[in-house]
Amino acid sequence: MWNMTIGDIPSANARRTPTAVAYVDGLQTHSWADVEQRSTRLGNALRAELGLGSSDVAAVLSDNCVAHPEVIFACSKIGAIYTGLNTRHHPREMAAHVIDAGASVLVVGPGFEDAASQVVAETGVRVVAIDHGDVGGRYDDLVRSGASKEIERHDDADKVYNLSYTSGTTGEPKGAMISSRNMLAFVRSLGWVARSSPEDRHLINLPMFHAGGHFATIHPAFYGLATVVLRRPDPAETVDMIRRHAVTTFLSVPIAMKMLVDHLTEHPANLDTLRVVLYGSNPVPEQVLREFDRLVGCGLAQIGGMGTEGGIGLALSPEQHASAFSDANLVHRLRSCGTVQPGVELRLVDENDDDVGAGKPGEMLFRGDAFVSGYWKRREASEFAWRGGWFHSGDIGVLDHDGFVTYVDRKSGRIKTGAETVYAREIEAAILTLDGVVDCCVVGVPDPKWNEAVWAVVETSLSSLSEDRIRDHVRCQLSGYKVPKRVFLVDALPRTALGKVSIGEVKAFCVGRNSLDVHG
User: Fold this and answer.
1) Residue pair 130/67 in contact by the 8 Å Cβ criterion
2) Is the separation of the CB atoms in 225 and 200 below 8 Å?
3) Which pLDDT tens digit goes with each residue over 146-185?
4) For residue 31, what are the contacts with CB-CB under 8 A and spacing of at least 6?
5) Domain residue spans of the chain
6) CA–CA separation, 439 vs 189, rounded Å?
7) What CATH number matches the domain at 8-399, 3.40.50.12780, 3.40.1790.10, 3.90.1150.10, 3.40.50.1360?
8) With DSSP H G I counted as helix, E B as strand and the rest as coil, what are the percentages for the chain, rounded to 5?
9) pTM summary value
10) Which homologous superfamily does the CATH classification assign to the domain defined by 418-519?
């Protein structure tokens, strides 16, 4: 039986529409025939010249460019594995990623030569440079040197083709083992939510190394759509590319949506070619959604569920957004993650994995073809996450009687203070309503009296904002036990590549300050 793999995507598109645009990357336009030829040559060269074999790993360290999908397709064709390095990481963190993945080849983009040199010094990985060959061989030379003969298919849709590392917002990053079957189930679901059509032109401005950017790379490729590649999510460039290339759809995240809203508020623009914008990663405040709807005027679709480990488990469709915007009785749905998607099963359970009823918070458990089998070289973590045959997301949600699921918090965001349980996100939502607050993060810190004390770290744009002002603001909205015991004001919170607050770093900061208070 024939099983499609990710490496088959350019082959299928080249047979069906060889001259159709696959990628617009800067001043270069690549057809699907080009992408198929280059990825085939690259696959042959990686195997023949660099010794990359089945299940070996090739890493890419680069801003967004067409080399990312070329390496992805080439690796899948020969049964090897792609992994993208976080461009915001310190070289030592990059080296740790290379070592953990066991990567033997590193493709390096312009601007990352110094970081690559440090990674090489620590790992000995072989480097191929996309732009200049100062730190290794030339990428285009490697592509040209590869044989043009078709690579014999391995026909294993369950074979891992991508190691996508979790962002590590709450702990150590882990490599999610994504197979072709996982990804193809995801892109079909994403295509259904986005109502993808052959006329669509997709924009990618999320980092391709990240799970969200990877999804945004493979989804349009699967449908044979043209993709406009933007190096980084700059709002002015995003607007320019949408207008210049008549973009109809793209995938975004909350912080990028807010940046775009702020830009369009100051610099209005007609973006009438946009049909739908998908967003995910974190909840988006209702006010930002309404401003986006007012300024852009296209359909919106939220995708959620498990991200790196499983793509879409839940979605709020464009039609559901439209209903919520226009009907006061449905506006609460804008705060939900939507409903369970076709091909996915969901349970909400208590601490004993017993199902909870509608209206009660419980951990979200998923299963379906889009969900990964486990984490790279982490057997115990994999078995723990997949216990009982269900993927334990670590996210707390509430299911209503209409089938809509509202995200409450990470399980790790549940704080046990005294005899009460509070959720960090509820306190964060209260703090965020205060003028001058840009963002915030609430964590539980060990406390001899309360077991855990509620602490908040607040990113602010006002020098006049004080700890007492924030505490009083929360006290006016929530119960006294939910008021943070300590508040720290900072210029900027630590963030991941997708702009999510790095909760682990915030927690470490607070625990460190607590230790100083106790022992100082």
Assistant:
1) yes
2) yes
3) 999 999 999 899 999 999 998 654 557 789 999 999 999 9
4) 18, 19, 20, 21, 22
5) 8-399, 418-519
6) 32
7) 3.40.50.12780
8) 35, 25, 35
9) 0.83
10) ANL, C-terminal domain (3.30.300.30)
